[in-house]
Write a structure and sequence with these properties.
It contains 3 helices and 6 strands, in the order ββββαβαβα. It is α/β, with parallel strands linked by helices. It has one domain: Nucleotidyltransferase, domain 5 (2-Layer Sandwich).
Length: 111
């Protein structure tokens, strides 16, 4: 089974706030953690609603993000999308740490 991951970005870093991101990294991974497909999507403007809609239409299993409003967090959990929040660091490194099984909420990831 593949896993779909979404990471809101700001200049290659995890966006500090979920609702202010206009650039999104979407990743599809295999069971072994190998990246099968990776793409960057540009949204027309910052919006928590757009990002939630994107997560649902892309059938995301996980969102890795910085700060997120509790209401949005609860909505995503209700929709069965796992959220790892309060993460800081470059999107690519954060993704690698997650794929190795070592990412948790509140992590600061630096090279």
């Amino acid at each position: 089974m593949t896993q779909r991951i979404i990471i809101p970005l700001h200049e290659e870093e995890v966006a500090p706030r979920f609702d202010l991101s206009t650039e999104v990294l979407t990743v599809e991974c295999g069971d072994d953690g190998q990246i099968l497909k990776e793409k960057i999507l540009i949204l027309p403007g910052p919006s928590a609603e757009r990002l939630c809609h994107l997560a649902l239409t892309e059938k995301a299993h996980l969102i890795i993000c910085g700060g997120i409003d509790q209401e949005v967090f609860d909505y995503l959990i209700w929709k069965r999308v796992q959220v790892i929040d309060d993460v800081i660091g470059p999107g690519a490194l954060v993704l690698q740490r997650y794929l190795k099984g070592h990412l948790k909420a509140g992590d600061i990831v630096r090279p």
